[in-house]
Amino acid sequence: LALTLAMGWVAQARAQTATEAWASAQPVVGQGAKLNLEEVLRSAVNTYPSIAAQRGQKRVAEADHETSKWGRFPTFSAEASRNDYGNNQSVARVQQPLWTGGKISSQIDNTEAGIQAAEAAIGETEQTVLIDSAVAFAEMLRAGERLKAAHENVAELERLHALISRRASTELSPQSDVTLATARLQTALAERLQFENLYLQSRATLEQMSGLRVGAVAMPSRPLPLFASTAEAVQQAIAFSPELARLQAQLAQANAQIGVASSVLWPSVGLVHQQNLGDVTIGQPRNQTYVTVQFQPGAGLSARSTITAANERKQTLQDNTEAARRKLARQIEADWTEAHSLSRQLEPSRALVESTRGVMASYIRQYTAGRKNWQDGMNAQRELAQALYALADTEAFRLRAILRLEIYTGRLTARSLNAS
């Protein structure tokens, strides 16, 4: 019996060494260091293509704004023709708008709001990239910890399988115990393969988001964000939300577009100076300066239809804004609840792992002493593996909820990452 126990503890030490060797053998990035959270998020917001595309959209909006401001300046035109008498006529004309029924001002307001919408869209895309990267980071941590637990589980079950096989060969234990150990070992091997696939998938996702070659990631120590209440967290998220800022800018654009559409119902007044450069007929002045009034309401009642459509677009944006506000509030409340609930579960989960580990070791000792049956030890090992998996889930999901709260409320942004 003493020899059997000694061999068992030696095999357990070898299994632990094998697990640690597996963890240390994982590929890493850079000079042997694990990537931390800030490095991953900073790289994501600085390299992700959709953010660069949104910055390009802002430059387009700025160019449109510059174009709209030129609407207040004179317009030059020239034309040349030949009349029925063979005279060549060339006319140069300069027209300065005096009043357009608010059309030019509304166009400028529209493009100014377009710049604001483009800026908010950049922040919105950055926020989305940060959240997706944070979720991918947490998922890789979860998969890595589950895989580590699966390796430990397989190593321990291999030790137990060897132990029961030796006892069965000397007829100290029935063959059914070997069958049970074999079945549990095969199940553990299948679980390990599943977690290996999840780990590789999560790593590939994180590499796509960050633009880095990821080997391993370090678990960050992230405290709960301090908010007086859920309502305060929701209030901060709504105040910071780039999505709501974009929708507000689009509402300003809709108002400006209503002004553009309404200006069609009014005549436009302009000051024109015209100079005839070619042949002129008798009595035709060489130079003319006059005020012109133009009224072009469009075909039928199309102007009013255009105004109606612009008002409907505004109402749609108002509804979308309210829907986005409610969705954000629900998300913050869910993340707040999850973060606080999992934080309370963290220490009990760690204690459960340690107590289950002790129970399992105790059951195996009692089994060799004849006070426990083999199935009790197998069940204890399974409970230990499940406790380790649950702990990995608790840590990863807690981190994910905390990061989402920080990102949604503006405490973790592209600017703060680049400033650190």
Compact overview of the structure:
This protein is α+β, with helices and mostly antiparallel strands. It is 71% helix and 9% strand.
Brief descriptors of the model:
420 residues; disordered N terminus; alpha+beta; four-stranded antiparallel sheet
Instruction: Please state how the strands of the largest beta sheet are arranged side by side.
Output: 1-2-3-4
Q: Could you give a short account of the major beta sheet?
A: 4 strands, antiparallel
Radius of gyration equals 36 Å
Poorly predicted spans: 1-32
Give the SSE layout.
Elements: H1 2-24, H2 37-47, H3 49-69, E1 75-82, E2 88-99, H4 103-169, H5 175-210, H6 230-240, H7 242-263, E3 268-276, E4 287-294, H8 302-368, H9 374-408, H10 414-419
Antiparallel strand pairs: 1-2, 2-3, 3-4
Describe this entry's structure for a reader.
By secondary structure, this protein is an alpha+beta fold. Helices cover 71% and strands 9% of the residues. The protein is built from ten helices and four strands. The protein has helices spanning 2-24, 37-47, 49-69, 103-169, 175-210, 230-240, 242-263, 302-368, 374-408, 414-419; strands at residues 75-82, 88-99, 268-276, 287-294. A four-stranded antiparallel beta sheet has the order 1-2-3-4, with no helix packed on it. Helix 4 packs antiparallel against helix 5 (175-210).
